[in-house]
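User: Sequence in, structure out. Go.
Assistant: Echoing your sequence, followed by the structure tokens.
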Amino acid sequence: MPVSGMDHDRRVHERIALEEFLRFMAGSPDVISVNHRPLEIVVALTESRSQTATVPIDPATLFTAHPDLLGDRAAFLPATADLMVALFEAIRLRATPGSTITLDAAGPGFLVDPVRDDGRPPWLTVPPTASRSDVRVPPGARLYEIDGNRIDSWESFFTVVGEAVNGPGGYFGRGLDALYDCLRGGFGTPDDDFGFRWGSSATSRRALGYAEGRRLLRHRLQTGALVNRRYVREDLLAAEHDRGATPFDWIVEVFDDSGIPLELA
């Protein structure tokens, strides 16, 4: 039977969307390779990649369950990012060596059989982030005092450090990138040596711990850049098990990367 012009256009559109989808999925750190004959994605089930699984991709199932993949760029990108997160969750939370992973024709993600029953990623056995080595502000350097007793949230840290440098209502960043820029100079700090002392840092460490990290990462998962969504979900998974870096660690790392001394008192 001859194919109508409309059917031909639809098939061409589906083929282009499928290739674009596979290209994006191939960029996931969970994906080892994408095979076209048969059409499948090979994923790693363990960090060492010694155990793998194949995820067969049926285009009809894919586009029926996820019609936004056939939409414009504004619809395609979030749908693809969501599927990357869903595949990550299937691998890390439910799959075990020997599991089969398939597209869920009736749902938002993937089906896993058999399912691991503990719900805990097997490689989340590493200890929490290690304590940082002592750093001291050199004698004679301009010293800014951060009052850790006033810090009870991510947002309050930036209020406190802004006031420490630039007085009441002062600005010294509202996020990690902006904090790094401020530490590099031109936002109230002198041209010569300066550093910070974080008083009552243990109190701040508790306030900026895993619970606060989970709050921030959940917000970032919903509002952050689509290309980063899978990586944010990985950080959130670690935080859900009290592993990995906390917001306190994120801040300290920015100071260390900038080369500006931050003394924890």
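User: And one key feature?
Assistant: The CA atoms of residues 35 and 41 lie 6 Å apart.
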